[in-house]
Automatic annotation (TrEMBL):
<dbReference type="GO" id="GO:0003700">
    <property type="term" value="F:DNA-binding transcription factor activity"/>
</dbReference>
<dbReference type="InterPro" id="IPR001647">
    <property type="entry name" value="HTH_TetR"/>
</dbReference>
<keyword id="KW-0805">Transcription regulation</keyword>
<feature type="domain" description="HTH tetR-type">
    <location>
        <begin position="11"/>
        <end position="69"/>
    </location>
</feature>
<keyword id="KW-0238">DNA-binding</keyword>
<keyword id="KW-0804">Transcription</keyword>
<dbReference type="InterPro" id="IPR009057">
    <property type="entry name" value="Homeodomain-like_sf"/>
</dbReference>
<feature type="DNA-binding region" description="H-T-H motif">
    <location>
        <begin position="32"/>
        <end position="51"/>
    </location>
</feature>
<dbReference type="InterPro" id="IPR050109">
    <property type="entry name" value="HTH-type_TetR-like_transc_reg"/>
</dbReference>
<protein>
    <submittedName>
        <fullName>TetR/AcrR family transcriptional regulator</fullName>
    </submittedName>
</protein>
<dbReference type="Pfam" id="PF00440">
    <property type="entry name" value="TetR_N"/>
</dbReference>
<dbReference type="GO" id="GO:0000976">
    <property type="term" value="F:transcription cis-regulatory region binding"/>
</dbReference>
C-alpha cells in the first residue's frame, strides 16, 4: 500500500470516528468511548490510536461541529433576499445539522462561548439579517434579533425531538418548523 493510500485510509478512519462521536454524543452526551468506537465500527484500541483520551476526541468533535456550522451558515446566504427569506434558508440549513447542533447545545451552551461578550446577540451577521427584515417589512420590528435567534433554536430543537419521538419524515418536520417560524416572525396586521 502506498503512503498516500495509508494516509487516506487514516484520514477516513479518523473522520469516521469523529462523525460517530457527533452522532452518539448528540443523542447522549455521557456516552462512553466504547459506544463511540462501536458506532464508528472500530475497536477501542483503534479509537485510542487516533485520540489519546476523551478530551482529545472532544476537541476534534468541536472543531468539526464548528466547521459544519460555518458551512451551513455560509450556504444559507444570510445577506441575500429579504430578512424573512434568509431566516427561512438558515432554518433549512441548520435543520440538517441535527446531531451537530444538539451536541453544541448540550456540550457548549452559548453563554459559555468565549468569543461572545454577552450570552445572546453575539453574531453580527444574524443581527444584520433580522434588522434587514425589520426594514424590508418581512420581520416584525417588535422582535429583537436575540428573540428571533432563540425562536429558531427552540423550533429546531422541537423539530428534532418531534421527529425522533413521532417518527415523522424529515420533509414534514421541516415544513412544520418553517411554518411556525414564518408565522412567528411575520409582521402582524394592526
Amino acid at each position: 500500500m502506498s503512503e498516500a493510500q495509508v494516509s487516506g485510509s487514516r484520514a477516513r478512519t479518523r473522520q469516521a470516528i469523529v462523525d460517530a462521536a457527533i452522532d452518539v454524543l448528540g443523542r447522549n452526551p455521557a456516552a462512553s468511548l466504547g459506544d463511540i468506537a462501536a458506532a464508528a465500527e472500530v475497536g477501542r484500541t483503534t479509537l485510542h490510536r487516533y485520540f489519546a483520551d476523551r478530551a482529545d476526541l472532544l476537541r476534534a468533535v468541536t472543531a468539526e461541529a464548528d466547521a459544519r456550522l460555518e458551512r451551513a451558515t455560509a450556504q444559507a446566504r444570510m445577506t441575500e433576499g429579504s430578512g424573512a427569506s434568509a431566516v427561512r434558508r438558515l432554518c433549512e440549513e441548520y435543520f440538517d445539522l441535527g446531531s451537530v447542533l444538539s451536541l453544541l447545545f448540550t456540550a457548549t451552551p452559548a453563554s459559555a462561548d468565549p468569543s461572545c461578550e454577552e450570552p445572546a446577540g453575539c453574531d453580527p451577521d444574524f443581527t444584520a439579517m433580522v434588522e434587514r427584515g425589520h426594514r424590508d417589512g418581512t420581520i416584525d420590528p417588535e422582535l429583537p434579533a436575540d428573540w428571533v435567534q432563540s425562536l429558531i433554536w427552540s423550533q429546531l430543537y422541537a423539530g428534532w425531538s418531534y421527529q425522533a419521538t413521532m417518527g415523522t419524515s424529515r420533509h414534514e418536520v421541516l415544513r412544520l418548523i418553517l411554518r411556525t417560524v414564518d408565522g412567528a416572525i411575520a409582521v402582524k396586521a394592526a
